[in-house]
Design goal:
By secondary structure, the chain is of the alpha+beta class. The chain folds into 3 domains: 2-160, Sandwich (Jelly Rolls), CATH 2.60.120; 161-207; 213-273, Homeodomain-like (Arc Repressor Mutant, subunit A). The chain has helices at 93-100, 114-127, 136-157, 163-177, 184-190, 195-206, 210-228, 233-239, 245-256, 260-273; strands spanning 2-4, 18-27, 31-34, 38-45, 47-51, 56-60, 63-67, 72-77, 81-88, 108-110. The strands form 2 sheets. It has a 6-stranded antiparallel β-sheet, covered by helices on one side. A hairpin with a 4-residue loop joins strand 5 (47-51) and strand 6 (56-60). The chain starts with a strand and ends with a helix. 31% of the residues are buried.
């Protein structure tokens, strides 16, 4: 079964956006085509073969197949296999290239912690019936990205830099829980960091502080609500995670050089003139 997700409204612009998500628990036929998007296939169980324009490869699950946009692949199971596929919208290639490291050029990566991967896939499947609800598709995006990052890091970077995967998991936690009240230092400890180590490692990966990252997510959602709803500003502040309206207004003004009220008024004025 294939789920198309790109037309569902996202809240969070900081998560790479899935276009299609496919589940094929007993695939037995051959795929032969040029891929028109950047795609990944998780072969959870089973084995088979894969060819590109030059080489033939043996597929031995569990593993991940990488299909870059514009490349031709032919692959099929020997008997049948259990496959989950992820297709992403552009422009995301640069974002994925950052994760590859020495995996540049690989088209097959072995999955080592398959039980954990299957548990994340089950979480995604439980969310799919609710995907039209507020914020659910963002959770699916975040869980899917966590799966991909885990496979990349486990294959290349986790051996020499075990902090990479923990930072990725912390980022996903922030993306799913930004509207809640939490202490960043306590979350750092949940992922086995000291607060100082967490901030330094986060800055290295994302070139911003964890606080700025969370504020970016919150304020982007606040902008959407100011545009698309008639909710009072103090209620919008609480929805996106700010209990104090003044504190919310201070951050909003810092990022957008105007108050939330002026932002809403300018948007409404523009609509009236159009």
């Amino acid at each position: 079964m294939i789920y198309r997700l790109n037309k569902i409204k996202r809240i969070n612009p900081y998560i790479l956006k899935l276009d299609r998500l496919g589940f094929f628990p007993d695939k037995h036929y051959q795929i032969q085509r040029v891929f028109n998007s950047f795609s990944f296939s998780l072969i959870l169980d089973g084995s088979g073969t894969m060819t590109d324009n030059i080489n033939q490869y043996t597929i031995d699950g569990p593993c991940m197949l990488i299909h870059k946009k514009g490349e031709f692949f032919r692959y099929s199971p020997i008997v049948q296999w259990n496959e989950v596929s992820f297709a992403y919208v552009l422009p995301v290639v640069d974002d994925f290239e950052k994760f590859f490291g020495e995996n540049q050029g690989k088209i097959i990566i072995k999955i080592k912690n398959i039980l954990w991967i299957k548990a994340l896939i089950q979480q995604i499947q439980s969310l799919l019936p609710l995907r039209e609800n507020y914020g659910v598709v963002d959770q699916i995006d975040a869980l899917s990205l966590l799966i991909l990052m885990h496979v990349f890091f486990d294959d290349h970077q986790a051996k020499s830099q075990p902090l990479n995967e923990k930072i990725a998991q912390a980022r996903s936690w922030f993306e799913l829980n930004y509207s809640k009240q939490f202490n960043i230092d306590e979350i750092a400890r949940e992922f086995d960091f000291s607060p100082c180590q967490f901030r330094k490692t986060w800055q290295l990966f994302y070139n911003c502080s964890p606080k700025d990252f969370i504020n970016n997510i919150r304020l982007t959602e606040a902008k959407r609500l100011l545009k698309e709803s008639n909710l009072p500003i103090n209620q919008i502040a609480q929805i996106v995670g700010y209990l104090d309206q003044r504190y919310f207004s201070t951050w909003f003004n810092k990022y957008y050089k105007m108050s939330p009220r002026k932002f809403r008024q300018s948007f409404l004025t523009y609509d009236d003139k159009s």
